[in-house]
Amino acid sequence: MSAFEGRYRQIVEGGLPGWFAEEHYAELTAHWRDRLTPQIAAGARILEVGCGVGKLAASLVAMGYEVVGVDISETAITLARRSVSDAKFEVANIGSALPFPEGEFDVVLDSDCLHHLHGAARTNFLGESARVLRDAGLLLVKTNVGEPPLEHHEMLGYDPGTRTSRRDGEIVNYYASAEEVLGELEAAGYRLDRVEHSGEANAQLLVDAIRG
Fold first, then answer.
1. Which residues contact 144 (CB under 8 A, 6 or more apart)?
2. Helix (H) or strand (E) run with residue 70 in it
3. pLDDT in tens, 151-198
4. Phi-psi region of 17 (alpha: psi -120 to 50; beta: other; left: phi over 0)
5. If we measure between CA atoms, which residue out of 161, 182, 181, 163 comes closest to residue 173?
6. Are 211 and 137 a contacting pair, CB within 8 Å?
7. What is the rounded CA–CA span in Å between residue 134 and residue 55?
8. Among 107, 121, 124, 180, which residue's beta carbon has the most beta carbons within 10 A?
9. Which residues pair with 198 in a beta bridge?
10. Calculated CA dihedral for residues 102, 205, 35, 70, nearest 10 degrees
């Protein structure tokens, strides 16, 4: 059982709303509304990777988008299917292959998922995201970059030598630099359209990247 599946089983047992608290999902909805609606028309097909229990997917549907969500956790996808009837959900490991044909989506949306991938899984995901996007489709990324604060190293199980943290022996986070992420996107064939980088330790990187 993956660390992520284990976490979602804990969420169910604890009666929690999802990976985050409800107020954080409200903030996420506002963030993605501000990024999406000025440039992506209603009716566009969006693939949300790392969709969890479907909280953001429900908000995207309410904005008028056609949404498909994927997550590695079967428990998360079961909950998403129960709670969001107007979106489609599939169990998938985005670090290997996405179960969709070429050019299927207008947008691939990654809300805090990329930093959970390490090594070849990152390259695979970026290549697969480009494959399932239409020509000039948009990959929207929101990810953590940079080392976590020093006082959090022990709690996170952070190894500065590999820039990873582990849970139950499994790598669950990779702390890439902003420059590394941007280089990975360009290597996957993306053109960087918008880049925002905030902070130093445990910073956020926001990227709008165009396929081709």
1. 112, 115, 173, 175, 202, 203, 204, 205
2. strand 66-71
3. 788 877 888 899 998 887 888 899 999 999 999 999 999 999 999 998
4. alpha
5. 163
6. yes
7. 25
8. 107
9. 204
10. 40
Residues in the chain with pLDDT < 70?
A: 1, 16-21, 199-202
Local structure of 92: helix, strand or coil = coil
> Per-domain residue ranges for the chain?
3-211
Q: Are 115 and 175 in contact (CB under 8 A)?
A: yes
Length of the chain: 212
- DSSP of 187-203, one letter per residue? HTTEEEEEEEEE-STTE
What gap in Å lies between CA 67 and CA 89, rounded to an integer?
9
The tokens of 22 are what?
């409800």
Q: φ, ψ for residue 5 (rounded to 5)?
A: -65, -45
Sign of CA pseudo-dihedral 113, 59, 21, 4:
negative
Whole-angstrom Cα Rg for the chain = 16
pTM of structure: 0.92
Closest CA to 89 of 130, 56, 48: 48
Residue range 3-211 forms a domain whose CATH class is: alpha beta
**CB contact at 8 A, 70 and 76:** no
The one-letter code for the residue type at 141 is: V
Cα–Cα dist 128/124, whole Å: 6
Q: Determine contact, residues 205/181, Cβ cutoff 8 Å.
A: yes
- DSSP class of residue 116 equals G
The residue with tokens 């996007």 is 133
Residue whose token pair is 């908000």: 59
